[in-house]
Amino acid sequence: MSMVKGANMLLMFLLELGVLGAAVAWGLTRDAPLVVRVVAAAGALTAFIVIWALFGAAKDARYRLTGWARAALELGWFGGGALLLAAAWSLPAGVVFFAVWALNYALRRMWRQV
Predict the structure, then answer these.
(1) Which keywords are on file for this protein (predicted)?
(2) CA gap 107, 96 in Å, rounded
(3) pLDDT of 53-79, one tens digit each?
């Protein structure tokens, strides 16, 4: 069972990277001049990194959240990533990303990994 729990935590890390990738993809796929697209990608990436570093990073968050506050943070952060993925690529991709996060979150709650 510990291998499955470890795999779930690895999935969490990959989902975090997926949100950051979605932020960059969203910025770079805007219908705008290259400079605007690069600034949008960098801005979205920076915003997501700062939010996660301040509130979401497992043991290194400056303002560590627990309980409902943590759930709200993850819902907003991963939900935002899913929306950006849907905007950059396709709606089904965003829906699948969000569904995978929801399953991951449910398992982390059940196994007290949150």
Answers:
(1) Membrane, Transmembrane, Transmembrane helix
(2) 17
(3) 999 998 889 999 999 999 999 999 999
3-38 burial, b if ≥16 CB within 10 A, otherwise e? eeeeebeebbeebbebbbebbbbbbbeeeeeeeebe
Burial 44-56 (b: 16+ CB within 10 A, else e): bbeebeeebeebb
Report in angstroms the alpha-carbon separations of 25 from 3, 5, 8, 30, 67.
32, 30, 25, 9, 31
pTM of this prediction?
0.94
CA–CA dist 7, 80 (Å, integer): 24
Report the amino acid identity of residue 62: R
